[in-house]
Amino acid sequence: MYSHDPRVKKCEEVPVEFPPQYQPGQPGLEYLMIPRPVSDLPGKVGSGKLQNKVAIITGGDSGIGRAIAYLFAREGADIVVVYLNEHTDALETQERIRQIGRSCLTIAGDIGDEEFCRGAVETTLSRFGRVDILINNAGEMIYEEDITNLTSEQLLRIFQTNVFSCFYFTKALLPYLQPGSAIINTSSLAADKGYPAMASYSATKGAISALTRSLAVTLADRGIRVNAVAPGRTWTPLIPSSFPPEFYMFYGSLNNPGPIKRTAQPYEIAPIYLYLASEESRYVIGQTIHVNGGEYMGL
Predict the structure, then answer these.
(1) Bridge-based pairing state of the strands 225-231 and 133-136
(2) Residue 253 belongs to a domain with what CATH number?
(3) Per the domain annotation, does 220 fall within a domain?
(4) At 103, is the secondary structure helix, strand, or coil?
(5) In terms of Cα–Cα distance, which of 113, 131, 163, 130 is closest to 56?
(6) For the segment 213-241, what is each residue's pLDDT rounded down to a tens digit?
(7) Phi and psi angles of residue 248, each rounded to the nearest 5 degrees, phi first
(8) Are the beta carbons of 121 and 173 closer than 8 angstroms?
(9) Which domain holds residue 263?
């Protein structure tokens, strides 16, 4: 089933129903999802907002990260996709970026490991000689209805992936970022709205929002802008790899809260990252911009 939302152009078919499906490992594989997330729209043309810039995107192989990668490439950027082990998704993303006409470097590894993050930055600098934009987007999610079942190992792991990696990449890149550079973190609606069975994930996203504000103040004098994006419900590989099949009733159009009443597709989230990465947002720092279809904030 596809959306009949009048705000969506007829050529932009947006799935609104998602059949139950499960993937046993995180962060999940996009090529196995039914329907596939919509990360790119044919016929879109960029305007050079990021011409010849270099962007590192963690989790850039799929989901929101892939949509960001495609949009940034259309705007003239070369892309570094950092991912865990989703090699098929990463190769697909790389090939699409090359078709768009930009270079794409893929780097596989665990962003919860500081040495890997440092090495990824060094590899990027060796290939491109510069980095202008850092997108801290990759994340994990734990669905746990009973918090007493959450182990200390699980809690440490989700913070390493979602929060520590932001520190690691920022720390490794700071000596090389120039005035005008941008760091954009991915928070979540979950940081502000309580969700059952998502306490650990919500905690990491709240930490990211706070980190964003602090880094923005710290780095403003250096001309480095730090902001965050907080998506609402979005169809990405994290969903089938995190939630039990019965959870999908909450992703369908009939059960989705908010005025728009449907789940977002990745391509609808990516333009906010482009705004924050471009010169158009040069007076914006320390902000977390919510993109959630009006699900929260009193709408």
Answers:
(1) unpaired
(2) 3.40.50.720
(3) yes
(4) coil
(5) 131
(6) 999 999 999 999 999 999 998 999 988 89
(7) -65, -20
(8) yes
(9) 46-291
* 31 annotated active-site: no
Residue 67 within any structural domain of the chain:
yes
Domain count, the chain: 1
User: What type of residue sits at position 129?
Assistant: G
Query: What is the C-alpha separation between 293 and 299, in angstroms, rounded?
Result: 9
The owner of tokens 């990360």 is 39
pTM of the shown model: 0.93
CB 240 within 8 A of CB 35: no
Catalytic residue among 70, 83, 168, 201: 201
138 within domain boundaries: yes
The tokens for 188 are 């979540």
Name the strand (E) or helix (H) holding 238. Answer: helix 238-242
DSSP helix/strand/coil, 258: coil
Tokens representing residue 274 in the block: 């482009």
Closest of 32, 146, 116 to residue 154, by C-alpha: 146
* 16 in any annotated domain: no
Distance CA 230, CA 297 (A): 12
Q: What is the pLDDT of residues 163-181, one digit of tens each?
A: 999 999 999 999 999 999 9
